[in-house]
Input
Amino acid sequence: MAFEEFPPLIADQLHYLLNHSPDSIKIANVWSGNKINPKILDRFTLVIPYCLETIKWDVIYNSEYAMDPPDFVFGPDDEDFVPCRCSAIAPDDDQISSLEKALSEWDHEDSTRLLVIIQGLRDQYVAYQRRRVGQVDDDRVKFEISTVLTRKGIEMQMASGVDKPEEVKFAVPLVMDMNINKMVVGCPWKHQQKIYLQVVYPILRKYEAAPSAPRLKLVSYYDLKSLFSVEDVKLSPWMDGMCLAEYLPHLEETLERQIHEAVAAIDLRRSFIEALSLNLGRPLEADPTFCRKATFLNASGQFTFMVHFFFSTQFPKQQPTLMLQSCQHLNQSSVPVKSNLLTEYPWSPRWEVGRMAERLCDFLTDEAVNFKKYCNEALLQH
Output
């Protein structure tokens, strides 16, 4: 994002915030409060990750007094969130004093100050939501809080609406004895990869005899999908009378094993690509880190075409998806003619990678004839 339309003092604060925040804070909207020159921007909406969702706060500077600290406007559902009311919101006096100090000793030349305030406000928001959840008249929720409080990083949130029943959401960072980033050679990820369990408890109504099971969902950074998709994990059912303290250890053990398998699958995909090279030659390009893609140049007589391989994280249980692309035929839009995605060919996950590659190359020999015919027909339709 360009900051040229902000006053320099505000631009420096904003630039530092977006580049150094550990929470992937983003800007959703910018506008001006300057009536004399509305082209000068001095207000913006921050989108801040919280409890596996997001909250939006408006940050209000005054471009005519850019040396002053900003004001903050919180969301309509958080009318009771009043930062720095120590006893009512957060028991951590050090946390509050550091925030108050950052506000009272505002230094417009210190580009780190806005980030310090945002982090302080977010810390107080965590305490505010925890206090709200603790006041819920639901014995199960109170018990769950007591069993997981020793876990670091848990966030919780009250959720309700006009047409929605009340519910409590927990975001639980799963603890595994591994550093996923360090397990992948050449890892390009900027953030430390973590996996969370989202737990949503419907609040028990007075006329309901027994609580319903919570809704469970695994959540991770999008980047992790290159290695491991949490959507492929089958969660164990929630048994009657179960609590999080019972459920989490088995889940963490299962995920740890599956991630080790996912890392080992990288080497298996790499070996398969190397086996293909014995028949198809050196790949034109290949994903060197996760081995999820590879492209080879192939020929059938004088017909030259490329073969694109796409690998899922479930390889070799799931065979690669193929797509052929002609080097000699263009469609009406002057784009190279391509085949549909191909997944129907001889395959067994129990074969050795050499046999997998050999059988697939045999398939390509036959499919090249069909694809050439398809390309010639597409050419005649011009």
Remarks:
- Residues 244-280 form the longest helix (37 residues).
- The radius of gyration is 28 Å.
- Confidence is low (pLDDT under 50) at residues 86-91.
